[in-house]
Design goal:
Elements lengths: L1 H11 L5 H8 L3 H13 L3 E5 L3 E6 L6 H5 L11 E4 L5 H10 L7 E4 L21 E7 L9 H19 L4 E3 L3 E4 L2 E12 L4 E10 L15 H5 L5 H22 L2 H10 L6 E5 L4 E9 L5 E5 L4 E4 L3 E4 L2
Parallel strand pairs: 3-4
Antiparallel strand pairs: 1-2, 4-5, 5-9, 6-7, 7-8, 8-9, 10-11, 10-14, 11-12, 12-13
Helix pairs in contact: 2-3, 6-8, 6-9
């Protein structure tokens, strides 16, 4: 009912009388008043004037499903949304939903995480109402070997969305980190549920520092607010990420990975640099020269050998 009230108030963009609103909703004036109070309690500024009615003055920067879907205009991403004030991990919840058969594009959102994590089990600090913490379920029907491309799609989409939404030029450190001025802004955690020859579903987890102040940033981290010098709408940025994810994902499905690889190269801060990659039992050091069609990093060692890195812990040496 509250979503319907918001829809009517958004459409009017002016005062809407209590009589009109209650009649359109099929509820009493008293029930309408209670719903309005509940909306105010969650952060909506709704002005009430005698003889004029109600007007929606402002919306809170909370990632409510009704806020995310309003004007989103996607075909897949975010058509089904699970929203939580706090979760241990959005990826863990999305994985459970994926096993239960949740459709492609299902989105899990949390205002905060108590056990957020990235690659190799590293913690991701997720203070409430500061960042964007989301997980998307995809069912691409691809071979497991191609799944790293989905991480590239997410990384490129985040950079595009940040540019469109804030004007800031974020960059990508292979394979899954988002950087801004050589400080970490966010990360991506891609987890597969797959068999030998087919991916059943993929969970793409995204953690992004948006309105964090210095006290809520780990050492070496940065937020969009700190760089921009003003608050950023988490709702608008989340919507833009979903739109860009959908566009790049559908392009990949229709045309293959070449287009997303070209975009990724433009955002990369890894290519052309000397890198050290820690693998399970050895290290590879050399120049990062390119990325191949399935997302592997190509490194030319000092001995002149060209090695393909599928995954690993990477350090930029210079």
């Amino acid at each position: 009912m509250q979503d319907k009230i918001l829809d009517w108030l958004r459409k009017k963009q002016d005062y809407l009388s209590g009589d009109q609103l209650s009649q359109r909703l099929g509820i009493s004036r008293q029930a309408l008043w209670k719903h309005i109070q509940q909306l105010k309690d969650t952060g909506y500024e709704i002005v009430a004037v005698p003889h004029l009615g109600y007007r929606l003055a402002s919306c809170p920067d909370r990632l409510f499903p009704s806020e995310i879907t309003y004007g989103l205009n996607t075909k897949i991403m975010g058509k089904k949304i699970y929203y939580f004030d706090i979760l241990p991990s959005t990826n863990e919840m999305a994985s459970e939903l994926g096993i239960q058969g949740a459709p492609e594009g299902t989105l899990v959102l949390a205002e905060g995480q108590s056990r957020g994590h990235g690659r190799l089990g590293r913690n991701w600090f997720s203070p409430k109402y500061k960042g964007i913490y989301l997980s998307l379920i995809l069912r691409p029907g691809i071979l497991p070997a191609l799944s790293p491309v989905l991480t590239l799609i997410a990384a490129v989409s985040i950079c595009e969305a940040i540019k469109e939404n804030t004007g800031l030029a974020a960059q990508i450190k292979w394979p899954n980190d988002i950087f801004l001025h050589n400080k970490k802004l966010g990360g991506i955690l891609t987890e597969l549920n797959a068999e030998m020859d087919i991916v059943r579903f993929v969970v793409i987890g995204i953690g992004l520092n948006v309105n964090n102040d210095k006290r809520s940033l780990v050492q070496g981290g940065i937020s969009l607010r700190e760089e921009k010098g003003e608050p950023i709408s988490r709702v608008s940025l989340t919507q833009e990420i979903l739109r860009d994810m959908e566009r790049n994902y559908l392009s990949f499905q229709a045309e293959g990975s070449q287009g997303i690889i070209e975009k990724w190269r433009n955002y990369s801060i890894t290519l052309g640099r000397r890198v050290r990659v820690s693998l399970e039992k050895r290290q590879v050091e050399g120049e990062a020269i390119d990325i191949d069609a399935d997302g592997g990093l190509l490194v030319r060692t000092d001995a002149g050998l060209r090695q393909k890195i599928i995954s690993g812990d990477i350090i930029h040496c210079r």
